[in-house]
Amino acid sequence: MQVPVGFLAKLWSFVSFLPYFILLLLLGCTKAVLIGPVAAAIVFFGDSAVIVGLWPAHFIWTYCCVLKTKRVGLVLKILAAIFLPLPLALLPVLGILGSLLVGIGYGVFTPLMATFEAVGEGVADKLSHCFLDGTASTIRGACMVVHDVTDFCFHSYFSFMDELSENMGEDEEPFDIKLSYLPRSLLVALVSVPLDVLMVTGVALWKSPCMLLKGWQRLCEDLVGREGPFLETVCVPFAGLAIVLWPLAVIAGVIASFLSSFFLGLHAGLIAYQEDSFQMGLSYMIAAVALYDEYTNDLLYLREGSCLPRPKYRKAGSPKFEASHDTDEHNIAAECAEKQHHGYRKPRRVLQRSKTFMETIQRLRPIQIWDWLFRSCEMNGRILMSEGLISSEDIEEFITKGKGKKLSIKLPAWCILHCLIRSAKHDSHGLLISDDVEVTNFNWPKDRVFDWMLGPLLVLKEQMKKLELTEDEEMCLRKLIMTNKNDKPSDWEDCGFPSNDSVKRAQLQAIIRRLQGIVANMSRIPGFRRRFLNLTRVLYLEAIDAGTIDGSRKIEGKVKADIASEKLQYGDSIEAKDPSNDTFGNVDMV
Q1: Mean pLDDT rounded to a whole number for the chain
Q2: What band does 239 get if pLDDT is binned at 50, 70 and 90?
Q3: Domain extent for 157
Q4: Is the per-residue pLDDT at 442 higher than 70?
Q5: Residues 326 and 434 in one domain
Q6: 22, 398, 432, 433: which one has the fewest Cβ atoms less than 10 Å from its Cβ?
Q7: Structural domain tally of the chain?
Q8: How far is CA 486 from CA 80, 114, 462, 489, 493, in A?
Q9: Nearest CA to 411 among 442, 390, 438?
């Protein structure tokens, strides 16, 4: 959409858009009133039933795993046994409240947003889409929410607990606390909490008028000029509502600052425990206020830094100090690189325009990374089945029992490892996930879960670059991942690996174990299991039709029935992707 230039053009654009916007808003609100209660009821009753129904099993199994694990020391076990009943008792209450809020929010905002998205650019037959979008799709989405919550409660939670109760490695030590450090930490927390609450809340109240005026200034300028959030039609109702409700947002910010100040005070006690120093805990108590003041200055485009004192709260030479120091240097280097990448020369203190909605979506789309991973698993899965590295028993075990590390762990791990090898060979700065797309720090989705993944993967890519694998080693490595264990060097004896370098083998085994650990954590994310199970069903039927594997007729009938049931529940194209519209084109394959 072209932004009007000049006051009269902007004013006419604003006036002519109002009737159009009001009609869409009324239509969206009508659909929200009709569809919202149904979707909210599905999410609320479905999630609540799962959470409450599994609560006894979660309660008992949590206690069993905590008491029998060797990863936790005796003192911490005793404290956990004493204090665990309170959070476990609150779990169903919080789950029911969360289900209610999620159900209401999803049922109201999804039809409303779908109405405005229906008149966006590139949508054909906008009139019919305005009335139909956000109706049946909202109901299907509510069912998917319940499905994902069920998978998390049934599988992900018990997977976390099972990992906690696993045996430790030889170089690992149990995590425990020292009783002699607790009095000092408690004293620091008792002093820090009231002071930090008072100071942080005072800073928030002092800057709240500035936040109110600057927020209104930005929103009003974007409204008149049809820029920022007002440029995209789907964002207009929420951006317009933000102008009216901006004082409530400011009040919510002050309340959030007040609540977070308690945690800052408690964290001072943790610092005192980690550094074994009463003085360091008090130093963090003071530095936390300065950090908060500096953060608010950056958020409101005020002066750099803070006028408040910021003493050091880590001892020089301690592991925590080195880690935080390295992290700061890394962040500074990344920031400088990004500024150079965008032609940054000199800081300018101007009130920047908000990003448009579509620009934000382009950067904040973790689903694109998921699409690449599942598409890569689909393509590589076909090849591995044709070569006999994935058998019908492996697929049937995963479909019937929901277990099978060969599929849910090893197949994604191989796809990611092949991406790392390919990126290392092309000397990529990030991850080369297709011929045309390179994922780096600049375009990586700004999502906390994905941020935890990118750093380790880039480190593993650099390690793969130093190993300089040959083509024969890559081909053998694919077989070793899918068929062999990688726990110790002897697991690769008589496996036909071309290299006799024991150090190289040990490094590859360590990389594979790290990747499998990353994939294990990814598999616990809501939605992963549902999508991977659908992928496995499709591969199973394709392999039977092609004669690649001999499947069981009973399981084949069950798979077809499950696919038909999900199509009826979620729609024909809920998981389907058109290859012509694939975000990444040709993904990396074996």
Answers
A1: 77
A2: low
A3: 1-176
A4: no
A5: no
A6: 22
A7: 3
A8: 34, 48, 20, 7, 11
A9: 390
Contact 415, 333 (CB under 8 A): no
* Four-CA torsion 257, 258, 263, 268, nearest 10 degrees: 90
Together in a domain, 109 and 128: yes
Separation between Cα atoms, residue 470 and residue 286, nearest integer Å: 55
Task: Enter the DSSP assignment of 587.
Answer: B
Q: How many CA atoms lie within 13 A of 65 on its CB side?
A: 17
Q: Are the beta carbons of 111 and 28 closer than 8 angstroms?
A: yes
pLDDT band at 15 (very low <50, low <70, confident <90, very high): low
End-to-end Cα spacing for the chain: 42
8 Å CB contact between 481 and 413: yes
Amino acid identity at 490? S
Residue 388 Ramachandran class (φ > 0 left, ψ -120 to 50 alpha, else beta):
left
Residue 122 has pLDDT above 70, yes or no: no
The two structure tokens encoding residue 440: 């780096």
Q: Are 384 and 249 in a shared domain?
A: no
Asked whether residue 341 falls in the same domain as residue 450, the answer is: no
User: Could you tell me the two tokens for 231?
Assistant: 């440029």
- What are the tens digits of pLDDT across the range 497-527? 777 777 888 888 888 888 888 888 888 888 8
The pair of three-digit structure tokens given for residue 563, joined into one six-digit string: 């696919």
Q: What angle do CA 383, 389, 395 make, to 5 degrees?
A: 90
Q: Answer yes or no: do 347 and 374 share one domain.
A: no
Average pLDDT of the segment spanning 564-589: 50
CB 203 within 8 A of CB 258: no
What is the reported pLDDT for 9?
61
> Of residues 89 and 338, which shows the higher confidence score?
89
Note the pLDDT tens digit of each residue in 451-482: 677 778 888 888 888 888 888 888 888 888 88
Q: Outline where DSSP puts E strands in 211-291.
A: none
**Dihedral angle at the C-alpha atoms of 530, 582, 338, 426, nearest 10 degrees?**
100
In this structure, are 185 and 169 located in the same domain? Answer: no
Per-residue confidence band for 356, with pLDDT thresholds at 50, 70 and 90: very low
The total of other beta-carbon atoms located within 10 Å of residue 401's CB is: 8
Q: Cα-flanking dihedrals φ and ψ of residue 432, to 5°? A: -90, 95
